[in-house]
Amino acid sequence: MEFIGLDQQPLSVVEDAGFRQLITTLDPRYILPGRKYFTDVCLPQLYQTVYTHIDSILKGQCHI
Hints:
Elements: H1 2-6, H2 17-26, H3 35-59
């Protein structure tokens, strides 16, 4: 998810042949999940983590 977010890549990049080949070259045992996994699982988890972090920071502020 960091690669997708930091480099502003579309979630579909995980289905691109070149990206899949890169991951296979790095670790042939790793099975790269498809876009749906990132959309349905990773993105909501990341959202909740970031939301909780920002919420805790804001709750500690007197003036916003």
